[in-house]
Here is the input.
Amino acid sequence: MGRTFFMAGGGTGGHVIPAIAVARELQARGHQPVFIGTQSGFEAKLVPGAGFPLELIEIGGLKRVGLVQTVRTLRQMPLSLNKVLALFNRYRPSAIFSMGGYVAGPVVLAAWWRRLPIVVMEPNAVPGLTNRQMGRFVSRALLSFPEAARYFPRGKTEITGLPVRREFFSIPPKLRGDVVTILITGGSRGSRTLNETTRDAWSFFRHSPFRVRLLHQTGGEAYDRISKDFATSRIDGEVMPFIADMPGAFAQADLIVCRAGAGAVAELAAASKPSILVPFPFAADQHQLKNAEAFVRAGAAVLVQDREMSGRRLYEEIAALVSEPGRLERMGRQARTFAQSDSAAQRAAAVLEELTYGRP
Here is the structure.
């Protein structure tokens, strides 16, 4: 008999996309996933697009948001909690799956209040604020890094990796042609550093001895300005605010320039793609830097610190990689050594089922 599961965690694609992968697995097993999110987060676009119901609450973040936003969020919390409790009465979920993030706070708190099983997935070596604060309440924590286990109850953690869409694993090897296709993405909301340095690199690409094609995901805020300038840049390619078909973009790319968050490096590994990694400098406990360093040690990526990135530096790193025969292909093969199997979503669904056996 199918059950209902609440899916919590939103704001960015990094929270929403893995949750959708788990939701699809639950749906395939005959269950009904229901997402809880906000109108301003990426879940408002991605979840309905994936065909799942989305219930909205109003809640903001608490980390590095300033006094005004902190006060607003604290005021929103009781109303959000009451709304979630009402949703519990309406849907009667059997358990909660959380990717963390500020949206998950009231959902996990309500689940603890109702004594429902809580399964969290933590993709980073150091959990975010919500998972750190709510960690003691969880029934199971599904991790990508063993270091994160200390934030959760002993005996309730396991290493599963992060769900990566199966399409990434099935991307065929790409033979380089006369044009080098470079994908630049700073995540669903974009990266100011990558946006500006890519823009500054256009003048170098125009005079380079090799031809390039750029696929650039800017995020919504910078899209209008950069796309307008790109139209007159005389550079081949496309600028987009958001790439819905990211596996398709990966398939076209010879090289990927991106941040080094857990989702990004998991996709690089699954797709066997070489990369230039620019870790977000304010990531908690420098977990993005640690991810990037692991890839560099394996020969799968080049690391450039955020403070050192410029248009010239980006061009020079790309030129060095392109000029060495076979280098990009070797990096791609090494990236694949980091790939988990595509079973993380299956394991998450199985854990949710296990924890609800015998419950009404």
